[in-house]
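Quick note —
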Amino acid sequence: MQPDYFEFYHLPETFRPDEAALKRAYYALSREHHPDFHATASAEHQQQMLHMATLNTDAYRTLSNPDLRMAYILSRHGLLEEGKQELPAEFLMEVMDLNEQLMELEFDADATTVRRVEDEVNVLFDTLEAGIEPVLAGYEMLPGDTKPQALEQIRTYYLKRRYLLRIRESLAKFAARS
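Predicted structure written out below.
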């Protein structure tokens, strides 16, 4: 099981952590557990400090990055397991046209079409971001019995966002060609 990075830093589980508090906790633990400060200790103690320093680095790297943090929280709640990656049918229908346009760009990557598809993807992104922001911002304050529903919304957002990012990557390749 993955360690609880929020507990490690004595922070509440949130999608919008206090960045300054996160950084302070990271630096404090970096000083406390840095292997160089324990060079004269026993081999066992040195190994423990190396483990703690690695845990600190992994925790900070994960929690300081919004995408990694979101995936981490969803994983901890069992929402990114194999078989739970399906996207809502209405979203798939919405992006089917974009996928067809991407296939057409394989044969004719003209700049006008690339820009038009980019604009469509940007509108979807903006709508997606605007819809989830209140959920992300208010997650920490939700009563425990409503958090599972919020996490499901966030999981759907996360999967949709990843899908749209893949489309953006494809568009970037076509833009480079045109």
